[in-house]
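so my prof wants the structure for this chain in the tokens format not the other one, which i didnt know existed until like an hour ago. anyway here's the sequence
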Amino acid sequence: VCLLIVAMATLALWRWNIDRSEKRSQYYVDTLQALIPQPQNAVPEERRDNTMSVLSVDGTDFAGVIELPRYESVLPVGADWGKASQYPCRFSGSIYNSTMQIGATTQKGQYDFYRELSVGDQVIYTDVEGNRYTFSITSLRYEKHADQAALQREEAPLTLFVKNIYSFEYLIVSCNVLY
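here's what i got, hopefully its the right format
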């Protein structure tokens, strides 16, 4: 009986954390969309300074917002890897010189639909300056690790990687610009 109570309490706490994370993510998206200038379509182009601007919301820096319209997914993108793990984060690179890598997990409310992703799906990234970049998924592959060698195996202007929190595998998603 005690074991059952502990299991139920653990499950309830896990569900509460997921709900809280989803609500917090939506709060960040709403706040960022209110702060970002009216989005304008753009294409990645080399700049003298490829440093990406950030917006700070409640002490967390964000580099932009990522959307996967087919899945009705709109999520904030943290500016610094590892500082906001409940949201996708910029792992490395810059959207401006077509080297951006964004990492995420399969936790509920993030990319729990990752197994449904397919070549041709649209990905939209809006930076905090209001530049909207539209991409199409060109390849999907599974890897045991998401190190630079795996992420750069295919040259792509935008690379997403999604860690399956249950099987410890990574889905590497390469995206090309839609002009």
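also thought this was worth mentioning. The mean pLDDT is 85.
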